[in-house]
Hints:
Elements: H1 3-7, H2 10-23, E1 32-33, H3 38-53, H4 73-76, H5 80-90, H6 95-118, H7 123-134, H8 137-146, H9 149-166, H10 170-183, H11 185-201, H12 207-219, H13 221-229, H14 235-238, H15 253-257, H16 280-292, H17 300-315, H18 321-326, H19 328-331, H20 341-357, H21 363-380, E2 390-391, H22 393-403, E3 430-432, E4 438-439, E5 441-444, E6 447-452, E7 457-461, E8 470-473, E9 478-480, E10 490-494, E11 497-502, H23 507-527, H24 529-540, H25 544-551
Antiparallel strand pairs: 1-2, 3-4, 3-7, 5-6, 6-11, 7-10, 8-9, 8-11
Helix pairs in contact: 2-6, 2-7, 3-5, 3-6, 5-6, 6-7, 6-9, 7-20, 7-21, 9-10, 9-11, 10-11, 10-12, 12-23, 13-23, 16-20, 16-21, 17-20
Amino acid sequence: MTKNSFRNHVFPIIILFFFCLVQFSSFFNSSWPVTHDGINHAIRIREYFREIKNGQFPVRWADTLDYQYGIPLFTYVYQGPYILSSIPMALSFDEVTSYKIVLFFGYILGIFGIYAIYAKKNKFFACAAAILFGLTPYLFLDMFVRGALGEIIAIGCMPWVIYAMENNKHSLAILSLWFIIISHNFLGVIFLCFLLMYLIWKSHITKALFRDIALSIGLSAFFIIPMMLENNYIASGLNNGFSYEYQNHFLYPFQLLYGKWGYGYSIPGPGDGMSFQIGITNLLIITGAFCSLFFIKNKKNILFLLVIIVCSLFLTLTYSKFIWDTVPILQIIQFPWRLLFIPTLLCPLLFAEWILNIPKVTTTQKYIFTIVFITLAAINTRNYRRATEYVSMETYQGKIIADEQKTTTVARNEVSPIWSPVPKSQGNRVIDTKKGSTIPITIKPESVTFTIDSENQQITILKNYFPGWKLTNITDSKNIPIQPDPDGNITVSLPKGTYTYMYGQTAIERYANIISIGSFFIFLGILFRPFLKNIIAALMHPHARDSGRKKK
């Protein structure tokens, strides 16, 4: 939007902003909202910001987790939400407020993105589509039940990719797709597949769009390349083990139609403790759009959206198990119902396409239909806009103390190095192996420094081994060969001297960083290309502007 056209959208933007405030109002307090994953996100937010302050960038190693032994958490867990949360943390907000700010940002980002897609066609229906998106039950499930911070950010960026690619906003497309990829490991891959199908269907494939996608992946290389190529360095990757088996989390058809709102967990069978309904309004939109195929002329977009929505819903059901059994890449999603993000994103788009193109219906009738749909959606979700419990900060501190040194994952082996098979305690120490005494150390970010007073002293460094760690003799700057012992610590005999055991990135991680840096400079070239063209033109033709003025 230009500055002039922006004025035409001020009123819808104000309405949507206040709508978001209402939906999120239960979070506007100093209490901690209890959700499934919220406490883990709070710990990660604090740990990520601590590592940034300590100079680690990109952040990979979480030094205080796993009881001070450290784990490569952010090599395998998406970083997008924690990059965002570092902004309010830098402004002196705590991790609780930062968590709420990022969650709200993801929610409002998606709503404004839906509006932007159709704002040029009709502001009223664009605003309605955005509100319907904001009233989708799955978003409330992610925010107030699961606390799925990564999913909310990823879903919030998706409309902006569609808007940017349809309007040739290349810089916005690159940034939005990049942030989706680094905000959720699985949703990013699935959305990328959808995006390619969408562009092919609309015959909108161009070299520039392929370049945008390639650059988004290139910017994400610092994260996705180590995550994939170093997957065999962690227990879950080596054993292809997941905390949840997809076979146990398929839905039954009636669960899509209605499910009692709850704050429990997904369990085998139809007795889940949370609701997976797609919402009565979305059911009406799908039904109305399907019926309109028989008499509507401009049906291409409607047909595509319907096919993708129906296919995604089918893949959440038990009947689709044979597909999941034969397509291994689907299995890493763990929860088939995660695919509900697709109808969450596409049903508002389907509504807009349907209501804008349906024939023989007056504008007044369309307005009435729209108001009815929004009313039904609001009634449907009226009790979903709050967490199961809001606890005081004192209670929150008790919860976080109990969990803050663990791994912030369901199971430790999701991110624990393969060399460290069992949990340990009281890490970040150096032990004289023979005497059993503790050697004094100086702890710095991602390193410990200690002095050996006798020759051939055998010591054990209580840190989880991971490729990239180096033991260096400070006196002569020589690296000491190290190997992990059966517990994943480092046991080695050393002569007299002062030593530093320091974290460093692997060769794969360094190469991945180079790809991201190179992609970043290419992105800057695209971003500033118009500006650079003007400068070059001015330098090559310095008198053109003056001669133009003389003619006037």
